[in-house]
Amino acid sequence: MKRRGLYRVLSLALLLSLALGSAAAKADLLEDIREKGYIVIATEGDWAPWTYHDENDNLVGLDIEIGKAIAAYLGVEARFEETNWDAILAGVDSGRFDIACNGVGYTEARAEKYSFSTPYVYTRDVLVVRSDNDAIHSFEDLKGKKTANTASSTYAALAESYGATVTGVDALADTIQLVLQGRVDATINAQVTINDYLTEHPDAQIKVVAESEGSPVAYPLRKVPETETLLAAVNEALQALRDNGTLSEISMKYFNGLDMTKSSSGQ
Questions:
Q1: Is pTM, for the whole model, over 0.85?
Q2: CA proximity to 261, closest of 222, 205, 214
Q3: Are 100 and 182 contained in the same domain?
Q4: Which residues are CB-contacts of 113 (< 8 A; sequence separation ≥ 6)?
Q5: How far apart are CA 231 and CA 217, in angstroms?
Q6: Count of domains for the chain
Q7: Dihedral angle sign, alpha carbons of residues 180, 184, 188, 193
Q8: Residue 161 has what DSSP assignment?
Q9: For 38, phi and psi rounded to 5 degrees?
Q10: What is the DSSP string of 175-222?
C-alpha cells in the first residue's frame, strides 16, 4: 500500500511538473506567436498615412508595412485587426492584441502601463486652424478655446495642457469638418498627417500656425514578463530594418519624401 501510494504521489508530481512546464512555455508570448504562426496587430485602418485603405480597399500605410516587416523578421504572418483608437490600448492591455501598430506616441504616463519598443519614427505636432482665424498663433493661444481630437490621444492631452476644451471625434475627416464649420477653434495633429491631408485636399481652408519639437513614436505591448522576449525581438527587427535602410524607405514612401526615422536632433 505504501509503495502504491508513493507511485501515485510520484505520478501526480510528474503530471503537475509537465503541466507547469507547458504553462510556462505558453507564458512566453513570442514562443506562443511562433507556435501559432501569426502575430495579432491592432490598427485603426482609417488614419492615413499610418494605416488606411487604398482605392482597392487594401489595408496599407506606414504601420502596416512595418508591421508586416516585423512579422517577417519573427518568421510569422501579420494578422491585422482594425478597431477604433479607444479600443487599441485596451485590447493590448487585455491580451486581445499582441502589439499595436498605429502611430502611438511614447509618453512617460503610457510607459508606466505598457512596454514600448524603440522609436521607429519621430513626429512633430502641428496646430491647425481655419484659414481666416487670426486669433490663434501658438499653442499658448489655445487657453479657453475649443479643439477636436480623439478623446484619449496625446493630441487631446496636449490641447488640454494648454487650457483648451476638447471635443471628442473618431476620425481626422470629422476633426477637420469641425474646424471648417467653426464648431471648434483648432485641432492638434501629426505634421505628416496634416501634410498628407493637404496634399489630398489642396483647397482645404485650413492652415498650420505652430509646430512642436519632435516626439518619439513606438509600438506598445503589455507590460508583463510574458512579453519581454517579444519586445526584444521587435527591437531587433526594428534595428535590422533601420540598418538596411528599409525603415527610411517606408518613411519616405508614406511621408511624401520625408525621412522621419531620425529624432529632431538628427540622432
A1: no
A2: 214
A3: no
A4: 93, 223
A5: 15
A6: 2
A7: negative
A8: H
A9: -155, 155
A10: HHHHHHHTSSSEEEEEHHHHHHHHHH-TT-SEEEEEE---EEE--EEE
Give yes or no for a contact between 122 and 262, defined as CB atoms under 8 angstroms apart. yes
- Tell me if 131 sits within 8 A of 153, measured CB to CB: no
Backbone angles phi, psi at 167, to 5 degrees: -95, 125
Q: Where are the alpha helices (DSSP H) in 27-167?
A: 29-36, 62-74, 85-94, 108-111, 154-161
CATH at residue 95 = 3.40.190.10
Joined grid coordinates for residue 143: 487657453
Residues 118 and 33 in one domain: yes
pLDDT digits (tens, 9 = 90+) for 53-81: 999 999 999 999 999 999 999 999 999 99
Same domain, 107 and 132: no
Q: Grid cell 477653434 — which residue?
A: 185
Cβ atoms of 207 and 128 closer than 8 Å: yes
Q: Which residues of the chain have pLDDT under 70?
A: 1-26, 264-267
Whole-angstrom distance, CA of residue 116 vs CA of residue 134: 39
> Closest Cα partner for 126 from 190, 172, 171?
190
Q: 206-211 and 125-130 as β-strands: parallel, antiparallel, unpaired? A: antiparallel
What is the tens place of the pLDDT at every residue in 209-259? 998 877 899 999 999 999 999 999 999 999 999 999 999 999 999 998 888
Find all residues with CB under 8 Å of 31, minimum gap 6, and list them: 25, 229
In three-state secondary structure terms, 251 is helix
